[in-house]
Each structure stands twice: as structure tokens, then as C-alpha cells.
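Show me any protein, fold above all:
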Amino acid sequence: MGPPAFHPSIQHERSFLMASFQKPRPLKAALKMALYGPAGSGKTFTALLIAEGLAQHTGKRIAYCDTEQGTAFYGQEVAQRSVHPNAFDFDVLYTRSITEVIAAVKSLDRDRYGVLVIDSITHLWDACRNAFHGRLTRAGTIPLPAWSAIKKPYKELMHLLLASPVHVLICGRQGIDIAEDEVSGELKNLGYKMRAEGETAYEPDVLIRLESYKSGRKDPAVPMAHVEKDRTGVLAGQSIPWPSFDNSARPLLGLLGITQAALPNEDEVGRQDADALAQQEEDHLERSLELAAEYTARFAVTDAVGELERLGKELTPEVKAQMAAKDLAGVRRAYATRLRQLRAEASAPEPKD
């Protein structure tokens, strides 16, 4: 009697924690907004206007990371200032150091501060690149393998900003988005972008491009906010003159939840995936050994060529895919060996009485 029937379609059950689909929930308790534009477009002033309203909404203070001392005149009263002549009330950190900003964000007192402004993210990206002191290419550029290390502190900062339960405003300078034409090979201007690491504009929930706008030649210029992205859909596609808390942030607050989801950073996800893939490979090898041993044992107890061939047909592509190449080769050798034995037994002359 042969071994018990084997069912290769049945998989081993392991108690892995599996991600599951669920209804969407409001897992963002804080607004994440980015503003960029050319010089004089009103980035710092607009950020302060929005931050002031958010601070009043939270009942907490504003923490402002200033890389170019752009807030120097906003902390004092200026009677001649036509809009918001009173001094803005905020606490400022003057630095262009990416490591100092990361340390400040990590140690931010969330009981005291409800709003964090980064102005500008462009200088902090430059700081990451300027920290590279390795050998350049012949063209004077940073070699491709070095970019992973250069981007690491920047990605850490972005993760901290997005995971923080405080409202975050990220200001950046404006750059030109240039790409090579696939047909002609010539460079062409695609428009504007935030001058920072290439993925920055994808991270916040709201992305606003600011410009200084004149409705007529004799009219004074006013800040104009072009909403290039708004995940809520409330402001999407709008152009807002004199952007402020009331017209740019307040309409979004009702969509926020009470818990700020903190997704793992890239390093944590990498380690998690590496562990999961290693476990999958271990399971695959274990499964492969079991299948190989099972089929080899069944080949050994077959009594006829037809029975062996029927058993061989169970090795479908799906079953073979569950085996490692070495184990599958061993199964094929065992099949071929048993087939030769059965054919030899079938062709052997009958013993004489």
C-alpha cells in the first residue's frame, strides 16, 4: 500500500499578520500644505497668514523654521503695512542646516505648538546636496550611487513633517520644469515646479503656486494662489486672490479626523518587506522539500509504467512552481530512474519452472 494521497494545492497555514482592505477613514488630523512661487509672490506672508489662523484654531503657537530670515519684519508692528499691520506672533528658528531642522522637528513640544512652518524647503534640499564631499564625475556632477545617501536626511525630514500631528506649511522657491522631447531630443519647458527634491510636491495634501498678480497696469499687485493639487477636492483648480486662512485652510478643516496616521518610513518598510520576503523564501524551500520527498516516495512504490505516468501528470506547472529548481531536478531524476526500472522489469523474460 502506498503513502496517503497528497494534495499539492493545500498550502501550509502560518499566522502572519496580513494587511486587509477596509472602509476609508479620516486618518489625518493635521493639514499638510505646500506653497511655492518666485521672489515677491508672497510665500512667507501667506504662510504666516494661514499659520496664524491655524494657531488660533488649535489654541497653540507657531513654530517657524526660517532659512533666509524672511520673517525679520513680520515679528514687529508695521503701521504702513496695508494688510496685517500688527506683528505676527510666532517662535522662529534661524538655520539652513537640515540636521538642525530635523532635531527641532523631533523635539517639537506638541502641547505648545500646533503649527510648523518650513521656509524654505529649497535651502534644506540644497543643504543635503552641499553635504556631499565625495568625488564628482568627469562632468562635475554627483555620481548616481551617491544620491541615496544625499536624499536620506531629506526623506527623514519629510516623513517627520507628514507624520506629525501638527499642521505643517512647507514653503519653497519656484523652479522651471524642463524635460527632453522624446521625438526631437530637444529640451522643452513644461511649466513651473517647486525647487526641491523631485518627489516633494507629491507629499502634501494641498499644493499652491503663488504669483504676484495685477488685474490692470495701474492696479497694485496682489498675491494670487493657484491651487495645483488638493486631495480634498474643495479648492482643486481654484485661483484665490489674497490667500489666507479663511479662504485657503478653514474650508478644509472639517474634513480632518482626530488621529494623525503615522505610516512607517522607507527604511522601516524596507526592513518589513525584507523580513517578509525572507520568510516567504523559507516557506517556499520548506514546501519544495516536502513536495519533492512526497513525489519521490510515491514514484518508488508504483508497480507499473502506466501508474507512474499518471502520477507524473500530477506535476502540473502550478505544482512545479512550488518547487525550487534543485528539488524539481531531483524529482525528475527519481521519475526517470523508476521509469527505467519498471520498463526493465516489464521486458525481462519470465522465469522458467
Remarks:
- The chain has ten helices and nine strands.
- The chain has two domains: 32-260, 269-347.
- The chain has a mean pLDDT of 89.
- The beta strands are 32-37, 61-66, 91-94, 113-119, 167-180, 187-194, 206-213, 222-230, 239-241.
